[in-house]
Amino acid sequence: MGLGENNVEKIKTSITGAMITSELNLAIQRCKTEGKVALAVIATAGTTVLGGFDNLEEIGEICQRENVWLHCDAAWGGAFIFSDKLRSKWLRGIERCDSILWNAHKMLGAPLQCTIFITNKPNLLASCNSVAAPYLFQSNKHYDEVYDDIGDKSVQCGRKSDAFKLWLMWSTLGIDTFTTIIEQTEDCARYFTESIRNKEGFMLYLDQHQCTNVFFWYIPERLRNQDTSEIWWKEIGQISVQIRTKLLLDDKLMIGYAPLPKKNVPNALRLVLTAYPLKTFKDMDFIIASIETVGKDQ
User: Fold this and answer.
1) Among 17, 146, 176, 247, which residue's Cβ finds the most Cβ atoms within 10 Å?
2) Which strands sit side by side in the sheet containing 99-103, from one edge to the other?
3) pTM of the full predicted structure?
4) Other CB atoms closer than 10 Å to residue 103's CB: what's the count?
């Protein structure tokens, strides 16, 4: 957009990765004091590493009071919209957002690329992007003008029909199947978390999983029951990378790892479960056993 990084105000987050709403309010007031205008607040539903969800109800209230546009990056966690149970827990207040982005190719498993942008402001996209080029969009064609209107709403004029991927998946599987696979995937994340919570050698960063993300470490026997010094943590972070590499090279499984540098947290294993193809508790047991097998030799 050409705004520049200096015009982006970073808001502090909690240990779960969620935006601290009191800090957001302070940042908006500070902008006003400095004579600046708060253009938009970008909230997140399902952060990349921890799977954290911002409090959309509280953020929505602040944005409405301050007349600031609220956009929600729901690229990952937006799939929870298909489950009443998960929506009521994690996506409360999403209806207060002025715009939402969701990647159907992520948790739901639609073919890449399949990104949806939604806004509750009718005709906004057309008023922002339309150039009504007469060599493309004429009113006297043999088909309904609405089809041209869709093309004139986006920055790209010619592009692939990404929406067809979601439509085909939706019409084939149905919303009940979406609900089932999303809820089962979240159940698997819960099962994995509970399985390693008190299991020797495993250590969770958070007490509970978020979204379908589990952030954790495996501690080899030689490093257990020791003082957790800076040197100890550095080695644990290196072991996370080694475990991931070994699992991949042995054709066992692919699991990610990541640090949280702003919170001074070293690399940890990052289990992120997609809904399609469907996962089972047996799959979770296999992941745990594979990590133990590889990790004990580190």
Assistant:
1) 17
2) 40-44, 69-73, 99-103, 115-119
3) 0.91
4) 20
